[in-house]
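Anyone? Bumping this.
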Amino acid sequence: MDYFLTEEQQMIKEIAAKIATEKVRPVRAELDETEEFPRDIMKILAQSDLFGVYLPEEYGGLGGGVMENCLAIEELGRACIGVATTYAASGLGAYPILLHGSEEQKKKYLPIIASGERLAAFAVTESGAGSDAGGIQTTAKRDGAFYLLNGTKQWITNGGEAEIYTVVAITDREKGARGASAFIVEKGDPGFSFGKKEKKMGICASATRELLFNDCKIPADRLISREGMGFIVTMKTFDVSRPGIGALAVGLSQGALDISVEYARKRVQFGKPIISFQAVQHMLADMATETEAARALVYTIAKYIDSGAKDISKLSAMAKLFPTDVAMRVTTNAVQVLGGYGYMRDYPVEKMMRDAKILQIYEGTNQIQRNVIGQELNKEYGRIKETFF
Amino acid sequence: MQVVVCIKQVPDAKNVRIDPETCTLVRQGVESIVNPHDWYAVEAALRFRDEYGGKVTALTMGPPQAEEALRETLALGVDEAVLLSDRAFAGADTWATSLTLARAVEKLGPVELVICGKQAIDGDTAQVGPGLAAHLDRPYTTYARRLELLDGGHLRAERVTDVGYEVVEMELPAVVTVVREIGDPRMPGLKHKMRAKKKEIPLWGVAELKLNPEEVGLQGSYTQVVRVFSPPPRCDREMINGDAETQAEALIKLLQEAEVPGL
């Protein structure tokens, strides 16, 4: 299938695919087993200029957008979404600065993120604030030329590994959703430390940690946008980052499909390769069709966002929802196609199935995505005066 | 400091066939790749530049499509590339090839170091590197796994041998061939790749290199291929099983039966 990519997009895809095949695929099982952070791979991605594909040239990036980011993520995800999540999460940490940061903040942070010299991370979730970001307890209190942060962030991807954190904290509890603000916190800031590294079901190569703020003192110019903009910054960030989760899902689905078809062509039962049996063929056909549909959706929405469109919340939620549900089905069926072998750790699909589950959970559960889509539909149709009956 | 790296485009070893009539490689319809050993030469050249400064120029002799191989090296960060291509170069053996490359190195101006892969996977001669040194009248070493520039402009190389490694030192300018222990080739970079796409690659033929057509290509080659054949299969083998004593007894019996003197 030809998606008529530009020359630059084709190059991004080729380089990411080469790194995925030669540097990620051979070590994915080991990284899954040891839960070791893929530092060497991040270094290679940095040297290959992949960390800046979605950032403007003036900040050291390559001038691409969501589409370019998705292409790189997809190809890396085809080999291992633990590694690809690590890569993508740096982008997630950079987006609040790119979208709402001051010129000084952009100049200070984006070039070192674009070069891959520093990893970034985004911190919203807390033990009592997941789908309901209104439950955030972490506070930021203005103290002269500084802010003092107190609280604990939970399950932060790239926690401990990243140097630059965008953190959402409450500056005015009485204002509810309008009382949250986004800040840039650097590793090494006084009062900022890390909690335990979580043990997860999948994406074990990615690091997930608590962030602990104990009278963490940061200069006041680390505030992103204005006080009270925290939720808007978060929502706008998710609007552009969610297709990236869709891209992880497309890559994962493709990786599982690749293995399933290759295996089904070789595995002989009842004297024939199992791909000659309709029961298996139809499973593979559905896996391939859904994967392609997911890819087409992600690319189309990514390009729409890059066109500068404003009404993107619903579409961006769709670009996360559908591909990740597909990835769960495709990887589950990949295990089924490989049968007993599929269930064994010697083969890569059981990892893929474990990895797939997180895609339906993080960056907004798929239930939350449906909420977003449903609420947007309600608003959209409320504005239409004509009837369709 | 200029480092030149010589590369060769070869048919992908997975698809090689030999024409039984002409005894030459069938290249039609076979995908070309950069000789895998040459990637280590490219990596060695880039590391040398990164460490000691200067620039890396990639050189290849081949048909016009060998330009693609040069662009692949540019995508890794090689600074310049020159393609040596001329109908007169066709059919060159290692003598004519290394002569042509030598003239190109001379034309490139001051070149402190020439790096080649240890051998090409099609011809497997491992002669072009040393041949190049001979034509350039420069010192050389082969199978290097480590290169270091010493104060005073000397080169120290560790060369791999069957039993370990040797440390050799030589004056620059010099020629070395390298092995895979020099380090894994780096991945292409996006910025390098974009530059590679647009980069102008000069094309030099006999005229540019001031070579006589009789000195190069098939005419300038001393090697004549009389016959190419697959080595005959090894004679019958028999595996002896059992513990050491049983195996030894069985072996002695077989040797006696074969009337080996002394048994």
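Late reply, but here is one note on the structure posted above: The two ends of chain A are 38 Å apart (CA to CA).
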